[in-house]
Amino acid sequence: MIVYSTNSEAETVEFGKFLGKSIRPFFSEGVIVFLNGELGAGKTTLCRGVLRDFNYLGAVKSPTYTLVEPYQIDLGCINHFDFFRIEHPDELDYIGIEEYFSEDTLSLIEWPDIGKGILPKNDLAISVDFHDGKRVIQMKPNSDLGEKVCSKVKRIA
User: Which of 15 and 66 is assigned the larger pLDDT?
Assistant: First the structure.
């Protein structure tokens, strides 16, 4: 497990860029990242950093109402999900959830526990929490691919 702390929104975005750089070599394999944390903890801020690393310069907001925001980039697609408003995992079938997970796709999923039983296994689980006035980011690999990403994060961060 990797534990990293940030003191500001800007530092959280920077860590997201580190994460993006670490994911980049494995992007073509299709990477699934679960993001956990309380409302307002910084999950979307972290996603913004990842997208910035992939040269997306537009607005990045939480897709709370749309459930998914796809970002087309040179390497493929980054899908940013937010399941906060989902009441039952079966609702994900209505958006054709299984079609979003493929090679050349990075999936960043906020509130993944809501999709339990429907979502595929994740490669990396990240939690973002506040502790003593800082954001504490914990990363845990859940696959060989996740181990490779974490190995790169350790070297970059």
Answer: 15
